Amino acid sequence: MSFSSLIGQDTAIAALKAAINRDAVPQAYLFVGSEGVGKTTAAIEFSKALCCKRPSPDGDPCDSCVNCNRINANEHPDFTRIAPEGDFTRIWQLWSRSGHPTGALETLSFAPVAAPRRIYLLERAETLNDESANSLLKALEEPPRYVNFILCAPSPSAVLPTILSRCQMVRFRQVPAEAIARTVAERKGVSLAEARMLAAYSEGGPGRAIRLADATELRDQRASLLDLAEKIARSPGIAAFRLAEELRNGAKPAKPKKGEDADAGEEKSGRGDLARSLDVLSAWYSDLLAISLRGGDAPLIHEDRRTAIQSAASRYRLEQLTENAETLAKFRRYLTRNANAQLATEALMLKLTPKKV
Please, are residues 33 and 42 in contact by the beta-carbon 8 Å criterion? Predict the structure, then answer.
């Protein structure tokens, strides 16, 4: 891999390469952008570029020297990745505590042993709790000259202002759907039509679309969720509780395959599956809006459901379709804040069922 593996992030990559070429790399970066846009991939490639023994003239890591290979394998003694433990990144992950003797930042005062720098990557800085965030702040204030921090978060407001003020921010943008579709079709060997559907579900995140392409259960889920969406359009508000139960049942995660980690990230969690289900519903309402605004020949994400989409769109006022799209976006944000799934899905269905035209 190299920086070129990142899709649609030319501005961010140019800024990182310029810092390397000028030998003016800040000691702390904050990479911000929505899920799947490439923040973590960029952080790993940047770390390799900083440590590479044979970098290319334009700043790409060689991806073949011992430092690049060990960072790729997450086995480099001077490169440390810190991911949340459950919902939070906790202080004992950073500093040794009773029962947890291997805090990642305990090596902060030790000079690097195999690379010119010691790099710490916090994959989801928004999950720092107050205690761990304040302890990290002390490390950011006066790090040893050989240390670099890279924090990743969905937005600047997701981290403490005091942490933000000590980091150089690099923004990663949402990527146009067509660029994501071409990438997914090329890398995963799916048809361009299916890749465009996955891109529509990805909210501008190529990484997310690629993960969805690997989620074979999505095809079965998609069919049942679109059946549910058709049912919502035909149901009165009093059916909302039953529809909410169907949504939760349809979003239950598949059992992990043999050898697969049951806790391998958001896409493998019940909450992650519900979020993925919301992506399907959001794309459905985008199709309803397209039909309502542009007529029966409008391009659709779910082309195979055109007749059903035309029928469903006729049951809604245009104003409610717009409201439904906004409601789904809000609901997904509530979900990330650990909203009660049962109450939230029931409220959602009450909103989505058609009002009298």
Answer: no
